[in-house]
Amino acid sequence: MTYVVTTPSFSGPIQLLVELISRHEMDVRDVAISPIVDEFVATLHASDQVTVDELSEFLLLAAILVEMKSRGLLPSPDEAEPDEEFVGWQERDVWLARLLELRTYGALADALGSLLERAGRAVARVRGVEDSVVVTPPDLLAGVTPADLARAYVRGIEEKPVPVVRLHHVTVDAVTVAETVVALAQRLPALGRVSFRALTAALSTRIEIIVHFLALLELCKLGHVSLGQGTIFGEVEIEWVADELGLDVGMVDSYEG
Question: Which strand ranges, in their side-by-side order, compose the sheet holding 236-240?
Fold first, then answer.
């Protein structure tokens, strides 16, 4: 709450009174501080709702009024600068900062008190394990002979085998399309008309059959062979036609793909 003071020269909040005196709009010597304090004490006795913040704020403002009035009644030989009259407000900030610190310590005290109260409800164990109970740790070397230790040592110091990456399942191109084109160019003229199945009957791997088919497509693109298939999914017939068309077979011998 904002404490309201009533004096012969002023009636209103005490904060406003301090501000008016600081701005020289009122003479502090015209303000009686004793009735203000007595009225506040009477308010404290009559009400139990005054908080610590309100009490500390009133004490701070009352202290500022006392300081101002003492300076007005007992002036020093050197006149004080007007700015020095605002020192009280700086002191007010200091008091408020200390009040916040006190609140922090108060909250910490409450927390510690709660922990102590909770710890007080615990009952400590006053007895340990019965004397009749014998705790025997397991023997980790039970059944281990010197020979076992020697074999373990040998296994630890022996050279580890070098890891080997097995590539037997990886297909390696042993023959290229370019080499097969040259080989077929030398072989097909003597065979005449032949089926693809008969041409690749001696081959054992799938990659060789695929390479031969690609090589035949290359020869067909060059115009050296003709490919035909009478029915769907029927036999692929191959016939060498380079000699009939008068093509240069020598260029096939140097085919590089």
Answer: 193-195, 236-240, 225-229
